[in-house]
Design a protein that fits this description.
The protein is an alpha/beta fold. It has one domain: 3-Layer(aba) Sandwich (Rossmann fold), CATH 3.40.50. The protein contains 11 helices and 10 strands. The protein has helices spanning about 30-45, 45-55, 60-65, 70-90, 90-95, 100-105, 120-125, 140-145, 150-155, 210-220, 260-270; strands spanning about 105-115, 130-135, 160, 175-180, 195-205, 225-235, 245-250, 255, 270-275, 290-295. The strands form 2 sheets. The protein has an 8-stranded mixed beta sheet with strand order 4-3-2-1-5-6-10-9, sandwiched between helices. A two-stranded antiparallel ribbon has the order 7-8. Strand 1, helix 7 and strand 2 form a beta-alpha-beta unit. The chain is globular. Pfam families: Methyltransf_PK.
């Protein structure tokens, strides 16, 4: 399915799970862990994911799994994370802009994966990116974003929407919505027209991909990055006993450990430039970690 905007309750995990700190070193999965990961991968089914999301409401409550109250804290934490990231790692592009341009938009082009109804799009990305592309499998969630009276349409910021699962999405696909063509876009995207993104945002959606597909997906993002571009990952982190990933039958998804994410990043050719645990969420919820990634070379 490749999208998710819900939060898992920590009470669903086993008691006594180990904590995760910001200085945790990358570790190689043991043979036992790899066997468990393969087992989880084999249980992921797109049909069950689609069935789950078809039943969810088109609002923050549906996107956040019954925890709409955390949306404001989530958005503000992400905003602060990006602000500090750009301050610590200034780019030649941002340095070359005029103060007026810089104060208007921090990024020229952004891709958001698993956008849902546009909670993060409207709450964060629209204030920092001049143009926005979206990947979201469920058309019912993006209908409001592409409507004529949508704030993103009125501002001219929404460029393309791809109503396709993350497993099936590539940059060559024609969008379901194109600002230049409306909802009548057809055919493949010419290679010379492919966008290069300053920011690629992945939040609560990568849990729908098996490990091999996740590595391939990360690898596919590298040629889509503009110089000095960022890949952001914000996902739940498993705290199950034994450092294992956790499979959720409810929506056929997997919550990964920090160590497993780091292994996937490395296999895809990405390095972690900055990472931080989300704060301010109810303690009954799973930990949520943000990663800022760039190509290793």
């Amino acid at each position: 399915m490749g999208r998710k905007r819900s939060i898992r309750g920590h009470l669903d995990q086993q008691d006594g799970a180990p904590s995760i700190n910001d200085t945790q070193e990358t570790t190689k999965a043991s043979a036992t862990e790899e066997t468990e990961e393969n087992h989880n991968d084999s249980r992921i089914t797109t049909a069950e994911q689609k069935e789950y999301w078809a039943q969810q409401s088109v609002d923050d409550d549906g996107m956040l799994g019954g925890y709409p109250q955390v949306s404001r804290v989530d958005i503000q934490f992400s905003r602060n994370f990006l602000h500090k990231l750009r301050r610590l790692h200034p780019t030649s592009d941002s340095n070359s802009r005029s103060s007026e341009q810089e104060s208007k938009y921090a990024f020229r082009s952004c891709l958001e994966v698993g956008a849902g109804i546009g909670r993060v799009t409207l709450g964060l990305l629209s204030s920092i990116s001049e143009k926005i592309d979206i990947v979201e499998p469920m058309e019912k969630f993006t209908a409001g974003l592409t409507a004529r009276d949508s704030p993103l349409v009125k501002s001219g910021q929404l460029r393309r929407v791809y109503n396709v699962s993350l497993q099936d999405w590539t940059a060559d696909l024609a969008p379901s919505y194109d600002a230049d063509l409306g909802n009548d876009a057809q055919g493949e995207m010419p290679s010379e027209a492919r966008e290069r993104y300053d920011l690629i945002w992945n939040q609560w959606c990568l849990n729908y991909l098996p490990n091999p597909a996740l590595v391939r997906y990360f690898s596919s993002l590298i040629p889509l990055l503009a110089p000095d571009g960022w890949i952001i990952v914000k996902e739940n982190i498993s705290t199950a006993d034994g450092g294992a990933d956790t499979f959720w039958e409810e929506d056929s998804s997997v919550t990964r450990t920090d160590a497993n994410f780091r292994v996937c990043f490395e296999k895809a050719g990405l390095v972690v430039v900055r990472t931080q645990l989300q704060t301010g969420f109810p303690k009954t919820l799973l930990p949520v970690r943000m990663y800022a990634l760039r190509p290793a070379s």
